[in-house]
Amino acid sequence: MSDHENRRHRLRRALQVLAVLAVAWLVVDKAVAVVAPEPTVGHWRSSEGYASYREAYEDVMATLPEPTRSHDVATEYGSVRVYEWTATEEGAEEDPPVVLLPGIRSGAPMWGANITHWVGQRTLYAMDAIGDAGMSTQSTPFTSFDDQAAWVEQVLAGLELERVHVVGHSFGGAIAAVHALEHPGRVASLTLLEPVMVLRGLPASTYLWSSLLLLPVPQSWKDRGMAEIGGVTVEEVRERTPMSSMIDQGSRHYDSVTLVPRTLSDEEWRSMSMPVRIDLASDSSLAGGEEAGGRARDLGREPVTVWPETTHSLPMQAADALGPELAAYWAAHDG
After folding, report:
1. CA angle (169, 315, 33) in 5-degree steps
2. Domains in the chain and their CATH numbers?
3. Model pLDDT, residue 30
4. Per residue in 165-189, is it b (16+ CB within 10 Å) or e — as a string?
């Protein structure tokens, strides 16, 4: 294996661990939200904690292609950090840009394995979510999950983006689905990669294993729980990389109150007028796997792909195949 292939392999493994940790923290945040006495805003527990996180965040961002520019877009819920990679190929600047919405605790850095396939071909925007660890800041509490769609729409309007291809992974996929439902005129196409909850609730085993993360049990038990949730090995969970360090710092130092996505009704799915592409994992899927895929097909949503030998870390595991597939999908729906 060449040095380049080794680096790509290490990056993929690091991103898979990141996805596992992100999913685990989604379940933990659900438990916290249930007992929270009143809505509040996500915040850093200390300036020292934020400084530690920011250092780790910048280490990961340094591994991505350098953005053309960054934006801090004001919304009624807070300020959103957005990174832009401007299209450089002739004529590409006229195509609708791509907007990337991350999974929880992942932020814009999670797209590192994917962005390299699209840089230059069309303009890309990746953002850190409000109310989650990252460079965005929250000033107003969320009162429902639909508020997530509101801040996304306000960011797109603030950037003066009339029509965009929206891609969301995990929690970001759920946000993308609700945004498309409420603002169909803004969405040229919708791509959902392992979107949690919107097609099918989380598997019961996820709650069973994630309960270990809330209990005063040995770290080895918690590591096993995260491995079972994400469909990876305990060794992969324990691997220390810039990515895993970043999400660990965010989990240690950031307090968030996350409102859990809802499962959309059949009528809501059928009402979406834009092209919708759904990509699911065959193993350890937190979006519902084959069952969710069957429901999506029954509702007339196509294409639906269940990728063999993949887990909830689908965007990272299938990055090489998704790169050209998604580029072709966007081109087919630019008009």
Report:
1. 30
2. 3-332 (3.40.50.1820)
3. 47
4. bbbbbbbbbbbbbbbbbebeebbbb
The average pLDDT across 304-321 equals: 93
d(CA 210, CA 110): 22
In whole angstroms, what is the distance from residue 174 CA to residue 264 CA?
A: 10
Q: What is the pLDDT of residue 41?
A: 92
Mean of pLDDT values over 274-282: 97
Displacement of CA 321 from its chain's centroid (Å): 18
Which pair of tokens denotes residue 139?
């000033």
Angle at 241 between CA 237 and CA 246, to 5 degrees: 90
Query: Cα–chain-centroid distance for residue 76?
Result: 22
Q: What is the pTM of this model?
A: 0.87
Give 269's pLDDT tier (boundaries 50, 70, 90).
very high
Question: Smallest Cα–Cα separation from 177: which of 287, 96, 69?
Answer: 287
